C-alpha cells in the first residue's frame, strides 16, 4: 500500500484500491448498519423509476461493483435487464457470485469511468435508465460533467438517470452540523475518525479526493440537458439526485426540436 501522503497526491489510488483485494475486502466487511442504510436508499431509486412492475427495459449501473443497486432494481421490476459496468475484476468476480439468482437477467461490462468517449460495445446505443450508487464521487469534476453528458446521450428520450452518492459539506458550519448529528447517532464515529490505521487513511483520502458539494452536481445535470432534475432524497452527507432526458430533443442542427421516438420498453 502506498504511503498515505503519496496516496493523497496520487491520481491512481482509486484503481489501486478497487482493482485489488483492499476494495473488495472492505466492501464485504462493511458494518451491517451502513449496508442496511444503503439498501433502503437503493429501494427509493427503484421506486423513482417510471416503469410498470412487469415492463421490459434495460438499465445500466455505472460503477456497479458487486451489484447491490442493480439487484434492487431487478427485484422491483420482473422483466428488467441490467448491464453492470465496473473497472474492478475483484468486485465483478464477487458480483458474479452474488448475482447467481439473477442469471440471464444481467451482464457485466468492463468500463473505466474515467475514460471519456464512446461507451463499451457491451452497452447498447440506447438504454432506458442509468443508475449509479456510490461511484460517481470517485470522478473529478471535468469527468463528472462529461459523464453526465454521455449518460444523457445514451438514454432513450424520457429515460432517467439517478445517482446515490456522498457529497461534501458546502461550508464549515454545515460540516459541523453533519458531524454533530452523525456522532450522536453513532457513538463510535468520532473515535473511528481520529484513529484510522494506514489502510483506512489511504481509503479515506481516496474516498474524499473528488467529492464535491451537491449544488454543482445538480448544475452539471441541468447543463447536460436533463429535465425534472431534483434532489429526491437527502440526509446529511448522502443524496439521491437525478433527472430524465427530455422527450423532445433539440435537432443536431440546433433547430427548434423534434420528437425523438422512444425505444421499446422505454418510459
Ligand atoms: C463503493 S463501491 C459501490 C459499488 C456499488 N455501486 C454499490 O452501491 O454497492 C464503488 C464501485 O465503483 C467502482 N469504481 C470506482 N472507480 C471506477 C472507475 N473509474 N471506473 C469504473 N468503476 C469504478 C469500484 O470498482 C467499485 O465497484
Task: Describe what you observe in this structure.
Helix 4 crosses helix 5 and helix 7 crosses helix 11 (214-223). Strand 6 (227-235) and strand 7 (238-244) form a beta hairpin. Helices cover 42% and strands 21% of the residues. A seven-stranded mixed beta sheet has the order 3-2-1-4-5-7-6, sandwiched between helices. It has helices at residues 4-9, 13-18, 21-29, 32-48, 68-76, 89-98, 141-154, 172-185, 189-194, 198-208, 214-223; strands spanning 57-62, 80-86, 106-110, 127-133, 155-166, 227-235, 238-244, 248-249, 258-259. It is globular, with a radius of gyration of 19 Å. The protein has one domain (4-259): Vaccinia Virus protein VP39 (Rossmann fold, 3-Layer(aba) Sandwich). It is an alpha/beta fold and 267 residues long. It is built from eleven helices and nine strands. Bound molecules: S-adenosylmethionine. The site of S-adenosylmethionine (SAM) has 19 residues, from helix 2 and helix 5.
Summarize the structure.
This protein has 267 residues and is of the alpha/beta class. The chain has eleven helices and nine strands.
The class by helix and strand makeup works out as alpha/beta
Task: List the uncertain runs.
Answer: 1-9, 251-267
Roughly how many Å is the radius of gyration?
A: 19 Å
Regarding CATH, which class? Alpha Beta
Largest sheet: 7 strands, mixed
What share of residues are in beta strands? Answer: 15-25%
* Number of individual domains: 1
Please report the number of helical segments.
11
What name does CATH use for the topology?
Rossmann fold
Can you give the helix content as a percent range? 40-55%
Q: Helix and strand string, N-terminal first? A: HHHHEHEHEEHEHHHHEEEE
Strand order across the largest sheet = 3-2-1-4-5-7-6
Mean pLDDT: 89
The counted number of beta strands is 9
Q: What's the N-to-C terminus distance?
A: 46 Å
Q: List ligands, each type once.
A: S-adenosylmethionine
- CATH-scheme architecture: 3-Layer(aba) Sandwich
Shape: globular
Name of the CATH superfamily: Vaccinia Virus protein VP39
Amino acid at each position: 500500500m502506498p504511503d498515505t501522503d503519496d496516496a493523497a497526491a496520487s491520481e491512481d489510488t482509486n484503481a489501486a484500491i478497487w482493482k485489488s483485494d483492499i476494495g473488495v475486502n472492505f466492501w464485504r466487511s462493511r458494518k451491517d448498519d451502513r449496508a442496511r442504510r444503503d439498501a433502503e436508499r437503493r429501494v427509493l431509486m427503484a421506486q423513482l423509476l417510471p416503469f410498470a412492475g412487469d415492463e421490459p427495459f434495460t438499465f445500466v449501473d455505472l460503477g456497479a461493483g458487486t451489484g447491490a443497486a442493480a439487484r434492487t432494481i431487478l427485484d422491483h421490476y420482473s422483466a428488467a435487464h441490467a448491464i453492470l459496468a465496473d473497472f474492478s475484476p475483484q468486485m465483478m468476480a464477487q458480483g458474479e457470485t452474488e448475482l447467481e439468482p439473477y442469471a440471464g437477467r444481467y451482464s457485466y461490462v468492463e468500463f473505466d469511468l474515467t475514460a471519456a468517449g464512446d461507451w463499451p460495445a457491451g452497452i447498447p446505443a440506447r438504454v432506458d435508465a442509468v443508475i449509479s450508487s456510490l461511484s460517481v464521487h470517485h470522478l473529478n469534476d471535468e469527468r463528472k460533467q462529461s459523464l453526465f453528458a454521455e449518460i444523457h446521450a445514451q438514454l432513450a428520450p424520457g429515460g432517467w438517470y439517478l445517482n446515490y452518492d456522498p457529497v461534501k459539506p458546502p461550508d464549515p458550519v454545515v460540516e459541523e452540523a453533519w458531524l454533530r448529528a452523525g456522532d450522536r447517532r453513532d457513538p463510535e464515529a468520532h473515535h473511528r475518525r481520529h484513529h484510522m490505521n494506514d489502510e483506512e487513511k489511504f481509503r479515506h483520502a481516496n474516498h474524499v479526493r473528488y467529492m464535491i458539494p451537491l449544488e454543482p452536481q445538480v448544475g452539471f445535470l441541468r447543463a447536460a440537458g436533463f429535465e425534472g432534475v431534483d434532489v429526491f432524497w437527502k440526509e446529511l452527507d448522502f443524496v439521491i439526485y437525478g433527472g430524465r432526458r427530455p422527450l423532445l430533443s433539440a435537432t443536431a442542427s440546433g433547430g427548434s426540436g423534434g420528437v425523438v421516438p422512444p425505444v421499446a420498453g422505454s418510459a
